[in-house]
Design a protein that fits this description.
This protein is mainly beta. It is about 10% helix and about 50% strand. The chain has one domain. Strands 1, 2, 3, 4, 5, 6 and 7 form a 7-stranded antiparallel sheet that branches. It starts with 12 loop residues before the first strand and ends with a helix.
């Protein structure tokens, strides 16, 4: 049975960290709040794992906004969705340009 999407993340805090130095040393670099979101339908990649994609509009503490595109996954035996490891994030204009150029390719 297809799982329902995760609970809305609107209002949740977002923290992005950056790597500094020659060894991985993570420090907090930006904090913001998710102010809007859209979700795809959940789909099953194989017999065991469900995936769902989301785009989130983030307002940072400095007042700027960006779009984060990410995913969640849920093994069939699990009761909860798990946040994906990678999240492209940039200004709305850059994300819009990337999506526009991707769609112009008319890939099938």
């Amino acid at each position: 049975m297809k799982p329902t999407q995760p609970v809305s993340k609107v209002g949740n805090k977002v923290e992005f960290s950056s790597v500094s130095g020659t060894l991985p040393k993570f420090t907090r670099s930006r904090v913001g709040t998710i102010i809007d979101e859209v979700w795809t339908d959940a789909y099953q990649n194989n017999d065991f794992i469900w995936y769902i994609y989301t785009s989130q509009l983030v307002r940072w503490t400095d007042g700027t906004r960006s779009i984060r595109m990410t995913y969640y996954y849920k093994p069939a035996y699990s009761k909860r969705w798990t946040f994906g490891r990678f999240s492209p994030e940039d200004t709305p204009s850059i994300i819009q340009e990337l999506i526009r150029k991707t769609l112009e390719k008319k890939w099938k």
